[in-house]
Amino acid sequence: MNKSNSSRWSVIALALLLGVFSTLGPFTIDMYLPAFPEIAKDLNTSASLVQFSLTACLLGLGIGQLVVGPLSDAYGRRRPLLIGIIAYVIVSFACAYSPNIGTLIVLRFAQGFAASAGIVISRAIARDLYSGHELTKFFSLLLLVGNLGPLVAPIAGSGVLTFTTWPGVFLSLAILGVFLYLMTQFRLKESHPPEQRVSPNFKSQLRNYGLMLRNRKFVGYMLAQGILTGGVFAYVAATPFVYQNIYGVSPTMFSVLFASNGISLMIGSQIVGRISHRVPEQKLMVVGLWMALLSSIVVVGVTIAQGPLFALVIPLFFFVCSISITSTAAFPLAMESQSKNAGSAAALLGLVPFVLGGLVAPIVGIAGEDTAVPLGLTLMGTSLIAILTYFMLVRKNESS
């Protein structure tokens, strides 16, 4: 094997390893989705409160990144990741034995907080090692692996539910955490050496966040991709009830339909990675934003007309694909000016989707379990706001 082939395979191996860590978020979010109706019945609660447990998890994933990202800038990548995964294993076991929905909601927040380490640190490591178009290509490769999470997680959850009840899903997540701990301990090298680390001083970290938030282009990329990605969590929260209660599909078929959108995530990220050296990331991001708006308008029409299942699945496929295109293009654009603060910058980029996703997730259930119209309206609203944000903060700033 020549040197170039060896180098290429080492890049692929690293992307595979980091991609496994980034799947912790999708598995934590998606694996228990097929169990939503069962959880509501077993804990004697409403669909909206079960969806709020998803909200709690998303908030934990977002807020956790704000804490873990700066810690990884100050203390290196490996140590915070190991601590986060240990906490994840403990909380996952606790989730399995939740006696009521209130306890589950609190524990889901803690589980999301712990899982955030895998997401933010894997992206910070990518920025430690790459920049420019090379970062775009590597990030798309990382997402190719990471996006297997939404593809595999609901199918895995449905498989677990065929021989056990919903607590078994959380016990499976605990086992996944143990595996990731071993991977971190024995396979992951430190990418952020001591001479490049920042002060662990709290005021210094706040100052770094302040500098980033005063950068209009960084904020524009952060909000545009974050608002759009936040909208997809409305889809994540709504589809277990829309597909199973309105369209009458089985938990297994729901998992297949949900997993198909994992394929769309992979397609979107690979499109950007393959053509980013010919088509600027800016143009790719704009294409993704408009694609999201058009597909969400179709979803609104289908839900109002109560169209057939395939008429809903197709535009949702394109909507999720557009999110992958937008986020893959936005990440290297936003991280371009960040090096020493890669962990903090990745934390801010990861915060907005989960916080907004946590806020919109319960909205799709307020009209009850027999209508999908709130889903369509939420997707269209987030798409429109994302486009306006991009043009106001990024394009306007470039032309001024």
UniProtKB/TrEMBL annotation:
Residue stretches spanning the membrane: 50-69, 81-99, 105-126, 138-157, 163-182, 218-243, 249-272, 284-304, 310-334, 346-367, 373-394
Main localization category: membrane
Domain of life: Bacteria
Residue ranges annotated for the Major facilitator superfamily (MFS) profile domain, each copy included: 11-398
The UniProt record lists the keyword Transferase: no
Keyword tags: Cell membrane, Membrane, Transmembrane, Transmembrane helix, Transport
Name recorded for this polypeptide: Bcr/CflA family efflux transporter
Natural source organism: Saccharibacillus kuerlensis
